[in-house]
Request: fold
Amino acid sequence: MKTIRMYRLDNLSTRQFKRLKAAQMEAAQVWNLCMQAHKQARLDHTKWPGEQDLRDLVKARFALHSQSIQAIVRMFVTTIETTCHLRKEHSQMKMKYPWRTKRFYPVSWPAQAVSKEKGRVVLPMGKGRKSLVLPFELPENSRACMLAWNHGFELHVCIEVPQAQEAPGENRATVDLGEIHLAAVTTTTSRALIVTGRGIRSLKRQRNQHLGWQNC
Reply:
């Protein structure tokens, strides 16, 4: 099982802050190039570029680690597929394909690219460029990382959490999953619980807004 742990990047030097900002601005340029290529194909009524086409388009053109660039391309393609699905399922809604030019975009690194050293995290920026070095230590079970903004820089880290083989205790519960209410639960103790999903949906939407830098 995986969870996300967020590390606040406070007390950055001016140089570190500028490098993190520049990395997110570079990531935005990758997204913008994919967006422009897809938009042009729609306007010209030609075949839409696929993931491999976009990878070839952005390859070796930006000051980022190659796998960070690939992650942006995958996210763009996923956004196109999701929008296409929603347009078919909800024809009454005016769902737009990506069209807005971004100034900033989160930067991701897969687990194999993250170097964990004593007292610091090293995030590569591509061949021939200095890595980003952050002064804190990640746990051994940490995996992929993402540089995000939430009124300040944060490093979102995927953490592997061991899952219990058996549930503790002897009581049992039956769960009915839903949308507005995430779950309705009844138990063998004759107690019941309704878990509402409004709060978590609001937090999810807020997080997506932060990651998308919609206000920039």
The beta strands are 2-8, 107-109, 115-117, 120-123, 132-134, 142-149, 153-160, 173-177, 181-187, 192-196.
